[in-house]
Amino acid sequence: MLDIVDRKILRALQCAPRLPFRRIGEVAGVSEQTAARRYQALRRSGTLRVLGLVNPRVYGSAQWVARVRCRPDRVGPLADALARRPDIAYAHLASGGSEIFCVIRSPLDTERDDALFRQLPKSASVLDVSVDLLLHEYGAPGTAEWTGYGDSLDAETVRLLTAERPSPAPAPPPPPADEDAPLLDALAEDGRTTHTRLAERTGWSSARVARRLESLESSGTLEYEVELLPEHLGYPLNATVWLRVAPAHLERVGEEFARHEEVPFVGAVTGEYNLLASVVSRDPDDFYRYLTTRVAATSGIDGYSVSMRARPLKKAASLISRGRLVPPVSF
């Protein structure tokens, strides 16, 4: 379990993923060396990964939410094949063991079935597929991240740290140059890779690395994400809550759910249930409390459905193997 120093380190990274260890140590009340050592221990355990990823808007990508119902005896191989695909941003097996939930990044004009089944063999193991478009993600950087593990930083510190995070550009970002590939590959493995190490990977000078990073960040081409495994932090029960909300209330309800400490992600989607929220809990009693207090107290919800997560498969650029976040090449 995390102590208060670990919690402060995690929250500082969520606010500013490339924050120097010296600054993290100041926030956590420890030395720079202790902050670095604690971070590396969390990373080695597979609890945490910091990633630098190309903004999908660069390539005009939309995100599609898919639910694939399969024959129970064939769901494992298909789930693993989906999770390995680079266009799959997130995947898990739902309770019951016969449904795969995944988020696909694909151009908006792609046929929905093509977006899901491209490069996969046609198989009788698939019984039913539903694919909906993710319309909007709620919550601003530094506020939407899951903090149920214990947010031990005060609001002013969070504000100051978030101000140190690169601000996204309002206009669509330009695509990276071909020569950026080694730089971006290194950041996809570890978003906190030092300028010195990035210089070694690219063959550039450290000064050129710094200039290029600043350009990619300020344009919104390069984004950083902090991935956590709630299971390692005392929250083994995970669910997707599907909500039906009238359009007049959608923005308000979405923003309200984004402020819930139990919710790492909430987004508006097409389909009968037009809002989905990922919810993490300690146990069934904790989840029941969330449904009967936080969800029940929110006006504008006309109906809901719950899908429990049976086994995590992938988060962003990380596969989940043996309960650890790992780069795809290591799976």
Note the beta-strand portion: 25-35%
CATH class of the domain at 234-310: Alpha Beta
Oligomer: single chain
The CATH topology assignment of the domain at 234-310 is Alpha-Beta Plaits
Strand tally is 12
Level-2 CATH architecture of the domain at 234-310: 2-Layer Sandwich
Estimated radius of gyration: 20 Å
Proportion of helical residues = 25-40%
| H and E order | HHHEEHEEHEHHHHEEHEEHEEE
Overall form: globular
Distance between the termini: 26 Å
Main-sheet strand order equals 2-4-3-10-7-9-8-5
Mean pLDDT metric: 86
Structure write-up:
With 331 residues, this protein is an alpha+beta fold. The chain has a domain at 234-310: Alpha-Beta Plaits (2-Layer Sandwich). The protein contains eleven helices and twelve strands. The chain has helices at residues 4-15, 21-28, 32-44, 75-84, 112-117, 155-163, 181-189, 195-202, 206-218, 247-258, 284-295; strands at residues 48-54, 61-70, 88-94, 99-107, 126-137, 222-228, 237-245, 265-269, 275-281, 301-315, 318-321, 324-326. Helix 1 (4-15) crosses helix 2 (21-28) and helix 1 (4-15) packs across helix 3 (32-44). It is globular. The protein starts with a helix and ends in a 5-residue tail after the last strand. 34% of the residues are buried.
